[in-house]
Amino acid sequence: MSDPNNPNITSRSTPQWSLMQRELFWAANEGKHPPLNTDPDKLKELARDRLSKAGWLYSSCNAGQSWTHYANRLAFYRHQIIPRTLVDTTERDTATTIFGHKVSAPFGFAPIGINRIYHPTGELSPAKVAAELNLPYCLSSAGSYSIEDTASANGPNGVRFFQLYWSPDDQVVVSMLERAAKSGYSVCMLTTDTWQLGWRHDDVAMGNYAFYHEHGAGDLGLQDPAFLERVKEAKLDPEKDKFDVGAKWIDENIWHGHSFSWSRLPWLMQQWERVSGGKPFVIKGIQNVADARKAVEMGVDGIVVSNHAGRQVDGAIGSLDALEKIVDAVGDKTYIMFDSGIRGAADVFKALALGAKFVFIGRLWVWALGAAGEEGVRHVVRGLLAEFDIMMNVTGYPKVEDINRDAIDSLPKGTYFPGTPDLT
C-alpha cells in the first residue's frame, strides 16, 4: 500500500498494516532505520549473535536430529499459493474472530516458556505488544513471570489465553486455573505432547535447563499458593534453596514425565468450566486424526494442530500435512487452530487455505525478543501484519474467510527443498 489516501484505509475495521512498508521506505529520507531485519533467517542470525549461548540453544534446538522441524518447513514448501488477479481488494480487511473476540489478524502469540532467558522483560513484552496490536497472547504455565503480572502487561482489553501443562498435583492444577480465570484469561489451552521434554542434544550437552539454574521456579511458580504449600511441606526456602525449589516446580508440576489419558480429561474440563464460568477449553498437540475425532467426542471447544515445532518427537509428520488430514476428518465439528514452522505471511496463508481458522507464531517473536526486546517484538509482529495485509492484496483474497483450498496447489510428497536445508 503506497497511497496513504487509498479508500481501503477507511473501509476496513483494522489499521492499514501495509502502510508500514511505505513508512519504512520513506524513513531513509529522514535518516531513520528499523531496529532489525524482519527476514526470518536474518532475524535468527541476529538472535544467535545477541543471546547467550544457553538462550540461543533453547530457542532454536529441536528434538533429535531436527527431522520433524525439517518436515514442517518442507510441508510449507510443498503446498504452494495460486494467486488470483483482477480481484477488487478495496474492502480488504485482515480481521477475524476467535472464540468471540474480534482480533486484528488470524494469528497470535504461541505459548513459550521461561522468556526471561531471552530478555529481562520476559513474558511482559510480548503480552504488551499483543494487546497494542489486538492479537491473542497465550501465556505458558512454564513462564517466568506470573500469571497476574503478565495479565497486567496485557492490559484490560487484551485477548489472552492460558496454556496449561497438566500437573499430577490436582491442587496445583486448580490453583493455576483459578489464578488464570481471575486474571482474565479467556481460554484454557491444554498442551498434551510434552509430559516431559524431548531429547534435545545441545541442551543436554550443556545442562541447559533454566529451572535448575538461574531462574528456578520463576514468578509463575513462586506466586502459586498451592505450590508454596508444597515447598513449605518439603521444608525448603525459596531464597536459600532456589535450585531445589526450581527443580520441585518443574519436575513435579510442568515437565514431570507422568501422563494422563482421555478418561481423566472430563475432570480437568469441569474444573476450568467451574472456575471460568464456562470459557472455552482447547487441546494443543493434535497430529493424529483419531485423536482429533476423540477430542471432538469429548466436547472440547477447539484443537491446535501442532507438533511443538519439532521439539518433541524427532522424525514425525509435518504439522501442516497433519492439518490437511485433520481438517478433512473434523473440520466442520470444532474450531481448528495451527502452529509449528510458521516463518512468514505465506505460511499463515497456507495454513488458512488448508483449513485452519487461526495460526500461532512462536520462534519469530522469541528471536525478536532476544534480538531487540520489546521494540524487536513490536517491529517483527507489525511486519508480519503488514506482510499478511500485502499478501491478501497481491494474491487477490480480500477477506480472511475467502482463503480456502482453491488458493493452494500441492506438490507430491517426497518433494525436497532446493539446496541444503537449515534445520534450526
UniProtKB/TrEMBL annotation:
- What domain of life does the native source organism fall in? Eukaryota
The record ties this protein, via Pfam families, to: FMN_dh
Residues binding glyoxylate are 58, 165, 200, 308, 311
Q: Which residue ranges does the record assign to the FMN hydroxy acid dehydrogenase domain?
A: 32-413
Q: Name one GO molecular function term.
A: FMN binding
Does the record carry Ribonucleoprotein as a key word?
Answer: no
Name the UniProt key words of this record, in alphabetical order: Flavoprotein, FMN, Oxidoreductase
According to its UniProt record, which cofactors does this protein need? FMN
Sequence positions that bind FMN? 111-113, 140, 163, 191, 284, 306, 339-343, 362-363
Q: What positions constitute the catalytic site?
A: 308 (proton acceptor)
| The keyword Flavoprotein is annotated on this UniProt entry | yes
UniProt xrefs under PANTHER family: L-LACTATE DEHYDROGENASE (AFU_ORTHOLOGUE AFUA_4G07050), S -2-HYDROXY-ACID OXIDASE-RELATED
* Family label: Belongs to the FMN-dependent alpha-hydroxy acid dehydrogenase family.
**The name this protein goes by in its record:** FMN-dependent dehydrogenase
Q: Which organism is it from?
A: Mycena metata
